[in-house]
Design a protein that fits this description.
It is a multi-pass membrane protein. InterPro entries: Cyt_b561_bac/Ni-Hgenase, Cytochrome_b561_oxidase, Di-haem_cyt_TM. It contains 4 helices and 2 strands, in the order ααββαα. It has a two-stranded antiparallel sheet with strand order 1-2. The N and C termini lie far apart (44 Å).
Length: 154
């Protein structure tokens, strides 16, 4: 987002970016509610305990950092003199901060840093999925999308 050159429509692109961030925050909150009401499938019984711990920590980190990035973006929006509160032209999103240039800069830098942390977590997660699917062939990834129990003999 910071590499968009200074142009007349830069605010438009930043506004769309913010709108997508508000959606990500809402969908992540709904996903956490869904996950609380619908527990995830059990991990394979033969999975080592360190992998079970790593799975729980990485999933928790993905949710936490996703929410953190969105909240920092929201805080950045409100701290700017010209905020990004117009949600796709439908209504104004209430801002959680007041205009403050120094705070806006701090929120922006942290938003960018944790966005890169989130990208690293996503890459790590995808590497773990590939490892389970192609190396271990333990059907961990298939259990996430199956509508019924996956047969481990397949």
């Amino acid at each position: 987002m910071n590499h968009v050159p200074a142009r007349a429509d830069k605010f438009f692109y930043r506004s769309i970016h913010a709108d997508i961030g508000y959606l990500v925050l809402l969908l992540t909150a709904l996903r956490l509610v869904w996950r609380g009401l619908n527990p995830t499938p059990a991990l394979p019984a033969d999975m080592p305990s360190w992998q079970r711990i790593a799975a729980r920590v990485s999933h928790g980190a993905l949710y936490a950092v996703t929410i953190l990035v969105a909240m920092l973006g929201w805080a950045h929006s409100g701290a700017r003199a010209q905020d990004y509160s117009d949600f796709f032209g439908l209504f104004h999103v209430p801002q959680i901060t007041s205009p403050d240039k120094a705070a806006a800069d701090a929120f922006e830098h942290r938003h960018i840093f944790f966005a890169y942390v989130l990208l690293a977590l996503i890459v790590l997660h995808l590497a773990a999925v590939a490892f389970h699917h192609f190396v271990k062939r333990d059907h961990v990834a298939a259990r996430m999308v199956a509508t019924s129990e996956v047969d481990p003999a397949r």
